[in-house]
Fold this sequence. Notes:
The protein is an alpha+beta fold. The chain has three domains: 3-120, no CATH class; 134-276, Rossmann fold (3-Layer(aba) Sandwich), CATH 3.40.50; 284-359, Alpha-Beta Plaits. The protein is built from twelve helices and 14 strands. The chain has helices at residues 3-21, 43-67, 69-76, 80-83, 112-120, 154-160, 178-183, 186-190, 194-204, 248-280, 295-307, 337-343; strands at residues 30-39, 87-98, 101-110, 134-141, 147-148, 171-172, 208-217, 221-230, 233-241, 284-291, 311-319, 323-330, 346-351, 354-359. Strands 4, 5, 6, 7, 8 and 9 form a six-stranded mixed beta sheet that branches. Strands 11-12-10-14-13 form a five-stranded mixed beta sheet. A three-stranded antiparallel beta sheet has the order 1-3-2. Helix 2 (43-67) runs antiparallel to helix 3 (69-76) and helix 6 (154-160) crosses helix 10 (248-280). The protein is globular. The two termini are 25 Å apart.
Amino acid sequence: xxxxxxxxxxxxxxxxxxxxxxxxxxxxxxxxxxxxxxxxxxxxxxxxxxxxxxxxxxxxxxxxxxxxxxxxxxxxxxxxxxxxxxxxxxxxxxxxxxxxxxxxxxxxxxxxxxxxxxxxxxxxxxxxxxxxxxxxxxxxxxxxxxxxxxxxxxxxxxxxxxxxxxxxxxxxxxxxxxxxxxxxxxxxxxxxxxxxxxxxxxxxxxxxxxxxxxxxxxxxxxxxxxxxxxxxxxxxxxxxxxxxxxxxxxxxxxxxxxxxxxxxxxxxxxxxxxxxxxxxxxxxxxxxxxxxxxxxxxxxxxxxxxxxxxxxxxxxxxxxxxxxxxxxxxxxxxxxxxxxxxxxxxxxxxxxxxxxxxxx
Length: 360
C-alpha cells in the first residue's frame, strides 16, 4: 500500500469516526483543530504536503499537552517517515483551496499502542483512564445586564482556550456555531428551558452538562458561578478571580483554569483511593502466557517481568519448550500494567485466548 492510498483510507476512516462520535474528539491520543497553510506549484502538491505537515505539527502539539515544551521540541525533530506510522486517521474540519495554495484544519488521531512507548521514552506517562466528559456552557452577563451566550462572549473564549477536550477530564465547550445558536438562546438559558438544553447535550453526546455563569468584577476581575452535579460529585463554585494583570480576559482564563485543576485533582484523588483500596486487599492476579525460544530467553524474560514496577510475583503453572503459563501477581490497577511493561521493553497484549507477555 502506498502512502497516498493509506492517507486516503485514513481520511475516510477519520471522517466516519467524527460523524459517529459527535463534533468533539476526546481521546488523549487525538489533536483537534490543527491548522496548516501550504503553498506549492499546484493545489494538489500543496495539499499533499499539508497532509504530511499536519501530522508533524499535531505530534508536537500532543507532546506539548502531555509532556511540556521539552517533549514537544524533541518530537518536532522527528522525520516524517517516522511519524507517519504513528497515524491512526485524519479528518478534515475545514479546508480552502486556490491555485498553488491549501489551507486546512484537521483532527489528527494517533495509534495509542505506538504512541505510548514513544512518549514513555521521554518520561511521559499517559493517564490510564480518562474521567467523564463534561459539556460546559459559558454564560456571560455584560455590564448592562444582558445575558450573552454565543456572541461576543469573553467567558466562552476563556473556556475554549483551555483546549481541554482531550484532557484527563475532557471539558467540551460548545462550538458556538449556527446550530448551537438555533438550539439554545440566551432566553432559553434564563428560563432554564430543559428541553432546549437537553437537545444541546445530545448534540455533544455527553452525560454531564454544566452552565458556568460569569460577569465582570471590580479590579479587572471576574465573578464565576458554576453549580451542578457530575459523576465526580456536586460542583459548587461561587468566587471572584482576579489575574495579576487585572485584565478581564486574563481573569476569565484564570477562573476556567482553576475549574479544570479542581475537577482533575478530584478525579485523581478518587482514583488514588480506589487504587489504595485494591492494594490494601492484597495483590491482584492475572493469568498470562510467556512464549520463549529457549531456557536462556525464558530466564531473561522472567527477570524483566519481575523487575517491572508493580509486579510482585510470577507463579509458573506450566512450562514447556515453547513457553510458560503463569499467574502474574501485581499491585495497583490492571490498566497501568501495559504502561509499566512498555517501560521494561515488554508488551502485554490480549487476544481471544487470554493475556500474553512478549518482548517489544
